[in-house]
Amino acid sequence: MTILNVLILVCLSYVVFLFAVAFAADRAARMGRGAWLRSPVVYTLSLSIYCTAWTFYGAVGFAARSGLEYLTIYLGPSLVMIGWWWMLRKMVRIGRSQRITSIADMISSRFGKSNLLAVFVTVIAVIGTTPYIALQLQSVTLSINAFAQADPAGGGGMPNTQSTAFVIAMGLALFTIVFGTRNLDVNERHHGVVIAIAVEAVVKLFALLAVGVFVVWGLSDGIGSTLDRIDASSIATWDVSGSRWVGLTMLSAAAFLCLPRMFQVMVVENQDERHLRTASWAFPVYLMLISLFVVPIAAIGLELLPSNSNPDLFVLTLPLTAGQDELAILSFLGGFSSATSMVIVAAIALSTMVSNHIVMPVWLRLTGGTAVVSGDVRTVVLRARRLSIAAIVFLGYLYFRVSGGGAALAEIGLISFAGVAQFLPVLLGGLFWRGATRVGAVTGLSVGSLLWLYCLFLPSFGPGVILPQYVFDQGLFGLSWLRPYALFGAQGMDKVVHAVMWSMSLNALSFIVMSLASFPKPVERLQGAQFVNVFEHSRTGGTWTGGLAQSEDLLVMSQRILGAPQAQALFSKAARAQGLGGFLPEPSPDFLQTLERELSGSVGAATAHAMISQIAGGTAVSVKDLLAVADETAQIMEYSSRLEAKSAEQARTARQLREVNEKLTQISVQKDAFLSQVSHELRTPMTSIRAFSEILRDAKGLTSEDKAKYSSIIHDEALRLTRLLDDLLDLSVLESGQIAMNSQTGLLSETLDRAVAATGGATEGFAILRAPEDEQILLTTDLDRLSQVFINLIANARKYCDAEAPELRIRTKRENGMLIVDFVDNGLGIPIDHQSLIFEKFARVGETKAGGAGLGLAICREIMTRLGGGVSYIPGQGGAAFRVTLPDVQALAAQ
Ligand code: ADP
Questions:
Q1: What's the gap in Å between 316 CA and the centre of ligand 1?
Q2: Coil, helix or strand for 249?
């Protein structure tokens, strides 16, 4: 038996083994015995689909061509796992709470369940993944060819590369269809596939380590001599290009997050958020192990093998030429595992996206929604999935044929990475920035993917295949700044770094700018809030209102999608929870929401939403949605009204401050006025005293008459001065509140008598009219002070009343519990605009003949305030009229 036949036999047995493993795992999971399937180790191993044939074979080729640069491909994911696990945790949490089925679903859900966005992401993902699938097919066919070449019994006859690739593609499509679309799992999880991948992960690691051990200790003489040989090889002399290192590390990190197949195993197939914790260190360890022997294999391969041999196949050709057929076959199985696991998961991930976001919406539209109830959706979805898988794998095969399978493996991988990396800005923005909008996402993705297509993907076919030669030389439309490898004049850069730089930066920029410039729809804002704050939010998706929803129709539809037993179980559980028997729960918003989440596991969030909305007759946005949005708006409004209130308060305080300030200024002015008044009042008598005393002292020959006259003037002025000072002192004592009131009890009539007597009593020229019977009131108050007030008022009347026959009427009455004494004369009275002024200090009306200082009424007011009453001017009495009021508590009628 030739080695090629052995290889094919081993290969087939391996495939059968994988089928068996997948089948057993699926069965165990269905029977509920699959606890071991949900271990963190399986999760970590499933992540290893990151390491495809590109890693298995290509890393050695990469190292042989560019030295240590191949490490960047492992560095990116390791950094993400170690440093960004919290962001992965957020993605996983959102994936679970929103029942996300793919990266397209994730992005479309975030931006208001927009199907346009989902289609967009799906298309880019398909375009970006196709070369990668081609790469896997190529690596498997290349490795088979390596065996054929080394097979002396085969007579050097090469198997037809294209038919080999075709057979492999068919086999892969079959496996994927069988295990990827066995049933429409609500969680979109594929236990069988995941276990098969975990097994393949172990195989490829084991194979690569085995080859590595063989190379170091078999072909070389241990570590020391291997290191020497590495130093001697061209690998040691490679210059490290900083920009390429940074660029490739970032690119691989971005791709790790955005590759549809990585999203599938990392988020969709994730069973438990805590598995991430293990994976965050275990996966980098896996990557480290798998990259451990890359450089030794490359160095020894370069040294031992002929210079025209393909470094991408050193892993295989080194054991083959050394005659180690078993090791070579193990190595082949490792490469085969890497290739198949990638194609399988990528096909599942892409077919989910294609069927959920392209086929189903189109089919729903074509059948006008009636089919949701009458047609068999489940069959349609499954058929769509299967067809998509076949189509995707076939597309990969087509790419392989068209591209001729010539380019170095690593280059194709990088092109693919750069394509899916375009999702990164939108993905990150969606997870962390509530302001990100659908318009921004669509714009960013369009700009990024167009640039990627033009600068990297299309030129990768080579000049003349898709882009004609002149575009490379002169640029599109002859514009030199539009050359694909020197966009906007950025010449001399590495073409991958060049394309990534332009596409990613302009993608992110336009995403941010358009997000800021556009306004999100309510659903977008709701979803945005749920994504960004997923850790604070409950596990709710968009809400539903029951409305016209018919439970029966919903059941019929769900049965077709989920399968009868599962749908019935779901419905009867909901009915029980609502306290109803049977299978039909009330179509409450809660139930519809649960149902939507369940369905979105099978057909995607947007489609599930559309389906339920067709039956429930609801609008895309429910009242509750709107309430939530209104709530949010209300919060914003409350905040702004709080700001307004604050500024109103500040305005009020400012006004108060201004008022106080004005008052202070006024008081200060008053104080100045008062001081100048006082000094003026004092100066007048002082001046005349001085003048007359000087005359008395200095003038000779004064008659004694004159002397007596001048002396009496001096005496009068001194009296006036004393009075003024007394008044001022009295007023200031009263104002300062330092004076104690001296309470006595006496009759009002007696107090009035005293006051009248003190002012000279009623004379011929001045009549005082009283009503003694009203005045018999017993008072308990400071009678001396009260009498001081009366004296002042009577004296004023005497001084100022200018009637021909002046008279003063004193009236006493009790009103509203107050004792009232009015002093009304028959003079001209006081003009209106002076009525309130006369109580102020130094206030005088006109040039008063009597020459008072204007302090009397001010003192009266102070006294009355101290006694608990008041004094005021009452207009309209025919003359000047002053009213003195006293609280009645002290006023007891004396019988
Ligand atoms: P004065 O010590 O100058 O009398 P008052 O405070 O007692 O000061 O009175 C203030 C001013 O009110 C007086 O200058 C006078 O012009 C006016 N006035 C007071 N009582 C009367 C009155 N009965 N008739 C007219 N004018 C009066």
A1: 126
A2: helix
**CA–CA gap between residue 501 and residue 513 (Å, rounded):** 18
Cα 480 to Cα 472: distance, rounded to the nearest angstrom: 9
Question: For tokens 């009042």, what's the residue?
Answer: 681
User: What's the rounded Cα separation, in Å, for the pair 289 and 522?
Assistant: 49
Angle (CA) 313 318 323, round 5°: 130
Other beta carbons within 10 angstroms of residue 623's beta carbon come to 14
Q: What's the gap in Å between 503 CA and the centre of ligand 1?
A: 94
The token duo for 885 is 């009021």
What distance in Å separates the CA atoms of residue 836 and residue 832, rounded to the nearest whole number?
Answer: 8
User: Looking at this protein, which amino acid is placed at residue 612?
Assistant: I
The interaxial angle of helices 704-736 and 856-866, nearest 10 deg, is 30
Read off the pTM. Answer: 0.59
CA of 666 to the centre of ligand 1 (A): 24
Report which of 67, 56, 61 is spatially closest to residue 410, judged by C-alpha positions: 61
CA of 861 to the centre of ligand 1 (A): 13
User: Residue 291 gets which letter from DSSP?
Assistant: T
Tokens 């005497």 correspond to 798
Strand positions, DSSP E, 175-289: none
Residue nearest atom 13 in ligand 1 by C-alpha distance = 844
Please give all residues whose beta carbon lies within 6 A of any atom in ligand 1, as ranges. 792, 796-797, 800-801, 825, 827, 830, 838, 843-845, 848, 852-858, 880
Rounded Cα distance between 438 and 447, Å, is 14
Q: What are the 10-residue block averages of pLDDT along the chain, 895 residues in total?
A: 76 84 79 72 86 81 78 86 82 80 85 82 87 83 78 55 76 78 60 84 89 83 76 69 80 87 85 82 89 84 77 82 82 85 85 85 72 61 84 86 61 80 88 83 89 82 69 66 66 74 88 84 71 59 45 73 78 80 72 81 70 60 48 62 82 88 77 78 84 86 86 88 85 81 89 90 87 88 91 91 90 87 91 80 68 83 90 87 81 45
Q: How many helices (H) and strands (E) does the chain have?
A: 35, 10
Q: For strand 807-815 and strand 767-770, is the pairing parallel, antiparallel, or unpaired?
A: parallel
Other CB atoms within 10 A of residue 40 CB: 16
